[in-house]
């Protein structure tokens, strides 16, 4: 049975994954895009669904229609994981009871920022389903000034830090707490040039 | 008493006792006709190591010239303990461990392990729901005292048969001081009415800890899972008697040797009887110490240590409780 009105992307194993550059030996998330984790949803009595962006909201609809999100639901849609959206998310999780599951849908950067708030509010990973939609938007954490910059550069690409201006290499190390890739000066290993 | 001699030669003790502590009985308190609390201090008056709430001591005792061990939960908070206290239910037809503890008098020497943590509190929990049945109150009391000491939010549910309760006074004191919430439940029938509403109304961030008879815990954990509790929030300590019901006899093959295992004998007992050394500890299928590798043959798993995946693989068994379903079982020690 399928009542989907969405034009769904190709989900065959050969199709593009969320992170084409998720090389082996790195900790870059390999979440299957568009997929709701059945193990997390099993036994759910209630669910909080948070969708970041309109595409995410459409997928939320799809999961509800196909019965993948059981029980009573509370749905919240935001454009992105802004401070305001995360505060709302924290409030929703904070007041829920054991037996509740959280579904986070959106770009990797948004979904992982939401996951952090949910964990801080007392949820465990077994209660949080992450539905990652492919996106070029990434967060990079500057190892030098500790500021997070949003960029569309790929992993191994270079982006300027919004605070200190250093050219940051997006290293294949993803912090699930910061929802950001580790970035460090791209020429950090090169000897200093004489300025004379 | 022969026990003193058997335990005095520390070199011959199981490693867990050899690296352990020599303690002196300070005081004994009869809580009710079946439960006795023993307060122990270091024999050399040194400081006792602190412990994580929910820890236990492995206590050595003499069983017919042979050193055996039993694990007993510590009932203190674990913070700078002036003494170690254990409360033990007398099992007249047990292996002798509880009879030994019930025979202890002030001044007696006890050889025990250092405290071992088996049911620690989850530090990120926002609320600790502590559910004890019967003698299972011992680790729960430890948790309750630690929660009170550190200002952690905790609710204790104590299910007991009136007349068989222990430490109710201590729990009521903590509750009266506003340190914990206490729900007293006289009898399992009463708890059966309470458990559904209780498990359905816990705030997110609650972790559940339970200790009591196996059947009690199995029912509670199953109900919790049906009500949407993920396994990560559920913590339990097996306390009940191990499944030592007789099984069909079989032959254990170890190298060249064929060792018969009788109907009423455990595989571990048969191996020990044949003079083989098998590391073991709880003899209840809980601790995982006596795991043996299965080379050939099928196993009836009776332990609570192996995961369903381990069981499916079928290459290991806990020889203190588990048996063979085939006539022969080939093992490598």
Structural class of chain B: alpha/beta
Name the strands of the widest sheet of chain A in spatial order: 6-5-9-8-7
Enumerate the strands of the largest sheet of chain B in spatial order, edge to edge or round the barrel. Answer: 10-9-8-11-12
Strand element count of chain A: 9
Compute the average pLDDT of chain B: 91
Q: Provide the helix percentage of chain B.
A: 10-25%
Instruction: State the assembly state of the protein chains.
Output: heterodimer
Number of helices of chain B: 9
Shape of chain A: elongated
Overall, the morphology of chain B is globular
Distance between the first and last residues' Cα of chain B: 34 Å
Radius of gyration of chain A: 18 Å
The helix/strand order of chain B is HHEEEEEHEEEHEHEHEHEEEHEEHEEE
Q: What summary fits the major beta sheet of chain B?
A: 5 strands, parallel
Q: Strand fraction band of chain B?
A: 25-35%
Q: How would a textbook summarize the main sheet of chain A?
A: 5 strands, mixed
């Amino acid at each position: 049975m399928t009542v989907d009105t969405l034009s769904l992307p190709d989900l065959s194993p050969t199709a593009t994954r969320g992170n084409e550059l998720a090389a082996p030996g790195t900790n870059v998330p390999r979440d299957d895009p568009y997929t709701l984790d059945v193990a997390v949803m099993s036994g759910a009595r209630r669910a909080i669904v948070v969708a970041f962006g309109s595409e995410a909201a459409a997928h939320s609809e799809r999961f509800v229609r196909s019965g993948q999100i059981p029980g009573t639901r509370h749905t919240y849609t935001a454009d992105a994981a802004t401070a305001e959206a995360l505060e709302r998310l924290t409030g929703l999780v904070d007041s829920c009871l054991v037996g509740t599951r959280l579904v986070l849908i959106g770009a990797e950067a948004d979904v992982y920022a939401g996951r952090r708030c949910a964990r801080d509010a007392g949820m465990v990973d077994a209660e949080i389903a992450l539905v990652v939609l492919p996106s070029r938007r990434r967060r990079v954490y500057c190892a030098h000034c500790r500021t997070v910059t949003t960029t569309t550069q790929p992993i191994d690409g270079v982006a300027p830090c919004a605070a200190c201006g250093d050219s940051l290499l997006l290293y294949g190390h993803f912090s699930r707490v910061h929802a950001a890739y580790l970035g460090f000066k791209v020429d950090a290993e090169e000897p200093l040039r004489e300025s004379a | 008493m022969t026990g003193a001699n058997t335990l005095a030669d520390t070199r011959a003790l199981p490693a867990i006792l050899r690296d352990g502590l020599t303690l002196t009985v300070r005081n004994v308190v009869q809580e009710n006709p079946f439960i006795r609390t023993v307060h122990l201090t270091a024999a050399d008056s040194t400081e006792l190591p602190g412990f994580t709430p929910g820890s236990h001591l492995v206590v050595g005792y003499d069983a017919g010239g042979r050193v055996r061990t039993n694990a007993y939960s510590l009932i203190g908070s674990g913070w700078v303990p002036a003494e170690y206290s254990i409360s033990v239910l007398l099992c007249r037809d047990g292996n002798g461990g509880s009879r030994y503890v019930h025979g202890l008098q002030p001044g007696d020497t006890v050889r025990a392990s250092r405290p071992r943590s088996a049911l620690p509190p989850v530090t990120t929990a926002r609320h600790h729901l502590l559910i004890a049945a019967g003698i299972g109150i011992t680790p729960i009391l430890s948790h309750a005292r630690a929660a009170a000491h550190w200002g952690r939010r905790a609710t204790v549910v104590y299910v007991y048969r009136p007349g068989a309760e222990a430490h109710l006074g201590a729990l009521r004191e903590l509750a009266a001081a506003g340190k914990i919430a206490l729900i007293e439940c006289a009898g399992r029938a009463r708890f059966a009415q309470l458990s559904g509403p209780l498990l359905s109304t816990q705030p997110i961030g609650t972790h559940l800890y339970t200790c009591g008879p196996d059947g009690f815990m199995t029912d509670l954990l199953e109900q919790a899972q049906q009500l949407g509790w993920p396994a990560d929030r559920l913590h339990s300590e097996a306390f009940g008697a191990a499944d030592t019901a007789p099984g069909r006899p079989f032959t254990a093959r170890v190298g060249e040797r064929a060792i018969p295992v009788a109907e009423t004998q455990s595989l571990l007992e048969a191996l020990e009887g044949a003079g083989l050394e098998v590391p073991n500890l709880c003899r209840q299928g809980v601790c995982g110490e006596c795991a043996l590798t299965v080379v050939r043959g099928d196993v009836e798993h009776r332990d609570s240590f192996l995961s369903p995946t381990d069981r499916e693989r079928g290459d290991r068994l806990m020889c203190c409780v588990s048996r063979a379903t085939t006539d022969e079982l080939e093992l490598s020690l």
